[in-house]
Amino acid sequence: MSAYQDLSNERDTLVAALEEQTDLQNAHPEEAGIISKVMDDLEEQLAALGEEEAQDDQAGLSPILEMFTRPQLQTDGFSCPASPGGEAGDSDTDTDMDYSDSDEDELNDHLHYQLNLLSFFNNKYLRTSKTIWKTITDLCSDIMASATGVPQEHPQTIEAREDEPLLGGPGAVTQRDRDPIYRNLIKGTATVAQCGILLLVALVWAGIFSHPLIFFSAHPLLNSSAILLQVQAALILQPTATPQQKLLGTRIHYSLQAISLAAFVTAFTIIEINKGDHPRLTSPHGIFGLITYICIILQALLGLVQYFLPVTILGSADAGKRLYKYHRHFGYSLLILELATVAAATQTTYNVDVLHIPLWGVLVAAMLVVAGVGARIKKHKLGF
């Protein structure tokens, strides 16, 4: 398949995806926010594809034009071929080859005609030569891979550079067409994040269940479970690429976040009841906790408005889409704040005297979560 056919097929695929997304928008008006964003992404890819084709055409024609127009081939617009007995323009051997001004003009016109003709056929035949060159280079790469044992990357295995994560190679955290969505939970550095969040939950739950359960015990159990759900919600959505994947990933994301929000609200209610008449905000954990709960509510409201109610509250779906990157920024920052609140909980009197959950263990778990989730962040989704 030629490079021209590759670009043509890619364009056809994007157009088909755009048409399919239009049908989805008509069938699911309640998903207008995310579907409109996906359509904008497809239109941007089509525009980028057009620019790539234009650049390929210009790059392919430039060397040929340079060959016909470089100075050593020109003398007042055209150069005479060298004779067998001497250099071009040698008066001793080319006296019979002198041209009049009219002959030079005629030859000049002929040269321009050939250049125009070459430009006309360039697009058709240049792509064939590029395909042959690509086949040769691919074959050389395969030979080198066989000789060295190091697999070579091919264009079809490399995702667009705008999807490159902060850490890792391009495509390392992009969901393939045939991949089930649950694989997003272990794809790339997700395993690192999973180890971290499971370690955190294990430390909290082991500390709680190693002592007699009381009314307060539900507070750390629910909070740690809610953070676990939030990490899964982030990991499931990060690698999605196609419109269908993004739609399914978003639905799973907000479902997990809704359960997580319910757990946080319940945990806050329990600690408020447990405190009774005792003073509040007397420790860093209490202060961080209140700030964290407020931020969780604000983040949930932001996600609700931008996705479900952009037209009703903001006036348009575009206004909702402009909030997406802030929702992502706020979400990642909130995760760090939640982990800091858990770390601060290890310094409370109850943990120091009763539970004995180690600070170093919580810090190690938090660093694994931040590293695993943060490494999969795609830069363009944050507005970079």
Automatic annotation (TrEMBL):
Residue span(s) of domain Cytochrome b561: 218-346
Where is this protein found? Answer: Membrane
Which organism is this protein's natural source? Aspergillus viridinutans
Q: Known Pfam families for this protein?
A: Cytochrom_B561 (PF03188)
Does the entry feature the keyword Ion transport, yes or no? no
Q: Where is the chain membrane-spanning?
A: 185-208, 258-274, 286-309, 330-350, 356-375
Main subcellular localisation: membrane
Q: How does it sit in the membrane?
A: Multi-pass membrane protein
Q: Which cofactor does it need?
A: heme b
Q: Where is the composition biased (Acidic residues)?
A: 89-105
Q: GO molecular-function annotation terms?
A: metal ion binding; transmembrane monodehydroascorbate reductase activity
Q: Where is this region: Disordered?
A: 74-105, 151-173
The cellular component terms of Gene Ontology attached to this UniProt record, alphabetical and capped at eight, are: membrane
Instruction: From the Swiss-Prot or TrEMBL record, give the protein name.
Output: Cytochrome b561 domain-containing protein
- Note whether Membrane occurs among the keywords: yes
**Coiled-coil annotated residue ranges, if any:** 4-59
Q: Which UniProt keywords apply?
A: Coiled coil, Electron transport, Heme, Iron, Membrane, Metal-binding, Transmembrane, Transmembrane helix, Transport
InterPro entries reported in the protein's UniProt record: CYB561D1/2, Cyt_b561/ferric_Rdtase_TM
